[in-house]
Amino acid sequence: MVVDTHLTAVSPVTLSIVIPMYNEVEGIDVLFERLNTLISDMDDLCEVVFVDDGSHDGTWQYLLQKHSLHFETQYIRLSRNFGKEAAMTAGLESVRGEAVILLDADLQDPPELIPEMLAKWREGFDVVNMKRRKRHGETWFKRFSAACFYKLMNWLSDTPVHENVGDFRLLSRQVVDHINAMPERNRFMKGILSWPGFAQATIEFDRHSRQCGDTKWNYGSLIGLAMDGITSFSFKPLRLATYSGVTIGVFAFVYGLWIMTKTLVFGEAVAGYASIMVTQLFLAGVQLLAIGLIGEYVGRVFVEVKQRPIFIVAQAYQQHRSDKPFSV
Ligand code: UDP
Ligand code: MG
């Protein structure tokens, strides 16, 4: 019999919940209350990792006053606002749990579903995707643009992202380790979280409106995120630019032949201002679009080669379930 001597050390923490927070002070009490009620019913050791993404409304100061008898806590403060993607990356790098759940601070994704997610993980799934059935509190335009984005992304990308699955999902330790090993600076998390693959399960749920405060995204930042998603996970836009160049080139050649023949047979006429203008403007548009596209990729290469850190941690504390002083 072969005895495996490489026993993997299993963390004492079963579940880690990562919560990125940007100016969420109003919701902290309810968040703690809901987590406390939920976790007090669970037998597993849980930790909650709060990542303060450079809030300026007192979120950090208020967070440090809170502690729980039911779960361990890690408090991480980034040196400025790096964005939700970077905040989640910071959280994932410091979790200790065997299973990890990403949760929004505004309780749009109900923590009460966590036991169901854990049950799927115990069945052997490495990733439990939470699919939004209804998206309460979002305008029809946001829902429509989100639907268009998922369609476009999945058409263009080589690593499809799950439609209507946000960042709220469970990841096994193994998947988290692979994600932490991904070195890219452009952290489009929906793509990064889907990329490693592994056994996937999906649970559907109704997404609620924010319990308080406003969304931290505007259309500008959402378009930026969509561009990040598409360019970080696909070369297809560049390929499309090549294809359209080839197609236009073929048409231009055929059209050129036709014009030459016409001129030789019927002589030269000076008419044709409209067609020249239309062709000229069309080609100028296509060229600018292609240059812009190349620029998007070059810009991202520029960010990657600089190798700057994705985030900077200004302060970090850990607190155990008992009311002990912080350990750094
Ligand atoms: N968030 C963050 N950094 C940011 C923006 C948002 O950490 O720069 C956090 C925010 O505090 C919340 C989560 O990301 O916990 C989701 O943000 P929001 O509710 O604004 O997004 P939406 O639900 O509208 O997509
Ligand atoms: Mg939200």
TrEMBL record:
<keyword id="KW-1003">Cell membrane</keyword>
<comment type="similarity">
    <text>Belongs to the glycosyltransferase 2 family. GtrB subfamily.</text>
</comment>
<dbReference type="InterPro" id="IPR050256">
    <property type="entry name" value="Glycosyltransferase_2"/>
</dbReference>
<keyword id="KW-0812">Transmembrane</keyword>
<protein>
    <submittedName>
        <fullName>Glycosyltransferase</fullName>
    </submittedName>
</protein>
<feature type="transmembrane region" description="Helical">
    <location>
        <begin position="272"/>
        <end position="298"/>
    </location>
</feature>
<keyword id="KW-1133">Transmembrane helix</keyword>
<dbReference type="Pfam" id="PF00535">
    <property type="entry name" value="Glycos_transf_2"/>
</dbReference>
<feature type="transmembrane region" description="Helical">
    <location>
        <begin position="240"/>
        <end position="260"/>
    </location>
</feature>
<keyword id="KW-0808">Transferase</keyword>
<dbReference type="GO" id="GO:0016757">
    <property type="term" value="F:glycosyltransferase activity"/>
</dbReference>
<keyword id="KW-0472">Membrane</keyword>
<dbReference type="GO" id="GO:0005886">
    <property type="term" value="C:plasma membrane"/>
</dbReference>
<feature type="domain" description="Glycosyltransferase 2-like">
    <location>
        <begin position="16"/>
        <end position="178"/>
    </location>
</feature>
<keyword id="KW-0328">Glycosyltransferase</keyword>
<dbReference type="InterPro" id="IPR029044">
    <property type="entry name" value="Nucleotide-diphossugar_trans"/>
</dbReference>
<dbReference type="InterPro" id="IPR001173">
    <property type="entry name" value="Glyco_trans_2-like"/>
</dbReference>
